[in-house]
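Below is a filled-in request sheet from our internal design queue. Each sheet records the structural input a requester submitted and the sequence that came back. We keep these sheets so that new team members can see what a complete request looks like end to end.

REQUESTER: design group, bay 2
PRIORITY: normal
MODE: inverse folding
CHAIN LENGTH: 480
BACKBONE (tokenized):
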């Protein structure tokens, strides 16, 4: 059966109308679209040439309307008009793609510009990431303790990738722990032929690329180790007193050492060579630190001075402020320093000011009978570099041994206590991880430089304190 039918009876009755319509269509120009539409409209509405599809039988107007959006749009246009329309669509598509690309390039440019700005501020020593506002006190159950040393821990460092912790103690041993465990045992006194240390280790540092580990001991020696395997490489001699501080210059293998002989020495580890000696302190040097610049800072102990050594310029700056022996020092950035002293104070310094910018007196409280109170000595300090977060560790009475975490005020002109973490024993060393995810404390029953007190109930070990943050911390702000 045919899918369509024609009403022929009326067609045959008036054949002249159909002929006229055909003649009219022949007279029109073939490119006239308006006439085409008229002809098509006439064909659609003609009573005498009506064609009905079998597919449309029984369909309501509503059903036909629903199908229209799914059908392809038919354009009644000439080939030239079609080319013009497609060209416009193509140009619009290209314009949209270029706009999206420009937005992405602008975003990447902003990221690069921000990174470069941070690097410039960091080199100038003016970078300060505001993260202290997001820190919250850790839960006691979150603190991990690593034990292994038989005698008090004296110093520690964290590898640049935060995967390993190196610690040393009065038992002359070095322990590498975290994911792996490696122990370098201490030698016995009189076994000078042994490569390991046979005297208490007082200080250590690791290069910024994690290649070299350096240790200094009571026997005036500096040992250089391969950090990955703890293999001994060579040793430096030259100091006339115990080596009390070591620091690698960031981005290089230049090593600065400080000693009780009141001198600072410069070494080149790659060349296994001595470079020069710097003099100026009037008493035993108790600490040293450095960053990227060719300079270092030192704490002069009982001469109560902080000194900035400009290696290239062959000059030094001298700062005064503490009332007691300055026992620990660390750089926050290239322009600001934190120190701790046995008068119980913690100070913030600028290399452009001779006096401290801020001082927290009796930072860890006092002990003793009424009227005879003595402040707890500040034995160690640490700084989360290029941030507003620092920490200090004290010792004294066992019931008040603790690690304090501080927030630095704008321009480092203030110290605000964030929280304290109770730790039983003498906090001889403190270090922040490079990522800022945790703080490590080296704890012992005695002070690292002597035996003025002994806390028998304390445990010699390493305390890993997580730095917890608020659930939805604000985005880190960067200020000059």
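RETURNED SEQUENCE:
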């Amino acid at each position: 059966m045919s899918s369509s039918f024609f009403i022929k009876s009326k067609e045959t009755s008036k054949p002249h109308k159909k002929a006229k319509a055909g003649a009219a269509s022949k007279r029109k120009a073939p490119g006239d679209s308006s006439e085409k539409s008229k002809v098509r409209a006439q064909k659609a509405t003609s009573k005498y040439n009506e064609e009905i599809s079998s597919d449309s039988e029984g369909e309501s107007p509503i059903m036909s309307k629903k199908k229209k959006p799914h059908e392809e749009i038919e354009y009644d246009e000439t080939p030239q008009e079609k080319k013009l329309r497609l060209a416009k669509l193509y140009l619009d598509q290209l314009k949209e793609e270029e706009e999206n690309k420009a937005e992405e390039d602008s975003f990447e440019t902003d990221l690069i510009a921000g990174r470069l700005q941070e690097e410039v501020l960091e080199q100038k020593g003016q970078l300060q990431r505001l993260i202290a506002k997001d820190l919250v006190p850790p839960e006691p159950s979150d603190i991990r303790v690593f034990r292994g040393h038989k005698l008090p821990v004296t110093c520690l460092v964290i590898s640049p990738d935060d995967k390993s912790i190196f610690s040393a103690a009065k038992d002359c041993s070095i322990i590498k722990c975290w994911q792996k465990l490696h122990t370098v045992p201490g030698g016995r006194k009189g076994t000078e032929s042994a490569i390991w240390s046979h005297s208490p280790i007082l200080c250590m540092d690791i290069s910024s690329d994690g290649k070299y580990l350096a240790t200094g001991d009571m026997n005036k020696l500096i040992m250089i180790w391969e950090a990955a395997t703890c293999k001994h490489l060579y040793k430096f001699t030259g100091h006339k007193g115990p080596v009390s501080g070591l620091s690698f210059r960031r981005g290089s293998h230049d090593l600065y050492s400080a000693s009780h002989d009141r001198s600072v020495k410069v070494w080149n580890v790659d060349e296994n060579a001595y470079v020069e000696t710097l003099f100026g302190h009037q008493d035993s040097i108790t600490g040293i630190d450095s960053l990227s610049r060719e300079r270092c800072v030192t704490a002069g102990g009982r001469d109560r001075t902080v000194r900035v050594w400009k290696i290239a310029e062959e000059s030094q700056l001298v700062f005064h402020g503490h009332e007691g022996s300055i026992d620990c020092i660390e750089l926050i950035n290239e322009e600001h320093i934190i120190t701790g002293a046995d008068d119980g104070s913690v100070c913030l310094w600028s290399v452009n000011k001779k006096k401290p910018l801020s001082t927290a007196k009796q930072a860890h409280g006092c002990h003793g009978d009424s009227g005879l109170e003595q402040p707890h000595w500040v034995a160690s300090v640490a700084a989360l570099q290029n941030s507003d977060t620092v920490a200090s560790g004290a010792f004294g009475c066992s019931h008040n041994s603790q690690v304090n975490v501080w927030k630095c005020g704008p321009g480092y002109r203030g110290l605000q206590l964030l929280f304290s973490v109770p730790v039983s024993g003498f906090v001889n060393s403190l270090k922040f991880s490079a990522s800022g995810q945790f703080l490590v404390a080296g704890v012992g029953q005695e002070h690292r430089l002597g035996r003025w007190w002994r806390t028998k109930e304390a445990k010699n070990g390493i305390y890993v304190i997580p730095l917890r943050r608020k659930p939805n911390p604000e985005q880190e702000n960067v200020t000059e």
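SHEET NOTES:
- Residues 82-124 form one domain.
- Helices lie at 8-13, 15-27, 33-45, 61-67, 79-124.
FILED BY: M.R.
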